[in-house]
């Protein structure tokens, strides 16, 4: 059935017959549907629209809550890591204020380094294996190749800067010097 039904209405307007043409309201009850059925369907539609609006608002609130909780969790995780390093910072400040001998300062700094390594270990940060291992570009960054006949070719001979990783994720590669053994290359 066509939604645009034509309705004609004749009116007497100062002795002239005027015919008005209009569009039938698609929500108006049709002859086949009773007024009571129409009102029930209209109420059901309004109820579903209201329910949809509430569900959309509920979804938006859940998304905002999840974002807020994720940010709070990240902040909490960062604060847990920082707490591990505060005692290390305190000890560095004490060392700077110290008037001890050079040997005593060196011993103090060595203790602070051990404390820092322990803090990193508690956060599951591991050092990258270097000296004595074969050069691996996934974990090592070569500073230079050094000609050495007494060690195997591509073996790490010196660590310039320590590398770190958390499980399988590399945080920073080790900066190393690598042996170049020309006798092994020729053989």
TrEMBL record:
Its main location: cytoplasm. The keyword Secreted does not apply. Pfam families: GrpE. InterPro entries: GrpE, GrpE_CC, GrpE_head. It comes from the Bacteria. Residues 38-72 form a coiled coil. Keywords: Chaperone, Coiled coil, Cytoplasm, Stress response. GO terms for biological process: protein folding. It is found in: Cytoplasm. Residues 1-17 have a biased composition (Polar residues). One of its GO terms (molecular function) is adenyl-nucleotide exchange factor activity. Residues 1-21 are annotated as: Disordered. Participates actively in the response to hyperosmotic and heat shock by preventing the aggregation of stress-denatured proteins, in association with DnaK and GrpE. It is the nucleotide exchange factor for DnaK and may function as a thermosensor. Unfolded proteins bind initially to DnaJ; upon interaction with the DnaJ-bound protein, DnaK hydrolyzes its bound ATP, resulting in the formation of a stable complex. GrpE releases ADP from DnaK; ATP binding to DnaK triggers the release of the substrate protein, thus completing the reaction cycle. Homodimer. Belongs to the GrpE family. This is Protein GrpE. The gene is grpE.
């Amino acid at each position: 059935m066509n939604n645009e039904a034509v309705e004609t209405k004749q009116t007497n307007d100062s002795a002239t017959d005027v015919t008005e043409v209009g569009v039938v309201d698609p929500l108006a009850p049709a002859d086949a549907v009773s007024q009571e059925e129409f009102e029930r369907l209209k109420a059901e539609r309004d109820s579903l629209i209201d329910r949809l609006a509430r569900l959309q608002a509920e979804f938006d609130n859940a998304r905002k809550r999840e974002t807020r909780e994720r940010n709070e969790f990240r902040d909490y995780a960062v604060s847990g890591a920082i707490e591990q390093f505060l005692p290390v910072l305190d000890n560095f400040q004490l060392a700077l204020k110290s008037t001890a001998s050079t040997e005593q300062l060196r011993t103090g700094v060595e203790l602070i380094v051990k404390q820092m390594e322990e803090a990193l270990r508690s956060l599951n940060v591991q050092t990258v294996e270097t000296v004595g291992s074969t050069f691996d570009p996934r974990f090592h960054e070569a500073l230079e190749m050094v000609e050495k006949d007494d060690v195997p070719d591509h073996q790490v001979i010196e660590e310039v800067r320590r590398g770190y990783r958390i499980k399988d994720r590399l945080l920073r590669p080790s900066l190393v010097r690598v042996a170049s053994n020309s006798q092994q290359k020729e053989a």
